[in-house]
Specification:
The chain is α/β, with parallel strands linked by helices. It is built from nine helices and four strands. The protein binds iron/sulfur cluster.
Length: 207
Amino acid sequence: MQCSKCTILACQENDLKKAPNRCPSVDDQTVFDEARKEYEKPDIRRISQTAAHVEVTGYMKWPRVKELIVFANKMGYKRLGIAFCIGLQAEAKVLTKILEKNNFEVVTGICTIGTLQKKELDIPDEDTFSTAEEVGCNPVGQAYFLNSKETDLNIVVGLCIGHDINFNKHSKAPTTILIVKDRVTTHNPAAVIYSRYYKQKYFEIKE
Ligand code: SF4
């Protein structure tokens, strides 16, 4: 059973006697026993507790930026890092001002930080907009930069797919995504999921 297609949701009701066949909550119990142990770590537990507080307190009232501020305050974070794409520098600037206004120290790193040329990564000319001499994105450099500044929390603003993966993999601080880049949908990838036109056009899914 795929959770995404399940209509029973016995896990949510805390009644696994009603679980469908091949329910992971039943079949993979050892996995979830292991996961439960992870919450014994104070930092993981605190993040979960703070997430619960923000979810309930701001439910249907606070936009994500407000949630981010309340979450970071309650966690006691002082220095926030922003890893942003050059295409969203204006958004990163506004976010920097908002966070500074809320008394955070903000460190920002643009995707082209460190001037990494695409040829250094063996990216061929056909996968560039000009030649492999051009400067590409340096998400590992962004992460290393923010790591060196000992940020308490990093915020991703519009990194490209793949670059976001490499950033998350190398960021020492816990990382949250504020803006997911989608050049076609004004950074709202869920638009494709909500739109029957997109679903039909790209994936031939009809409902
Ligand atoms: S864990 Fe089991 S009950 Fe819950 S959504 Fe997945 S399949 Fe359904």
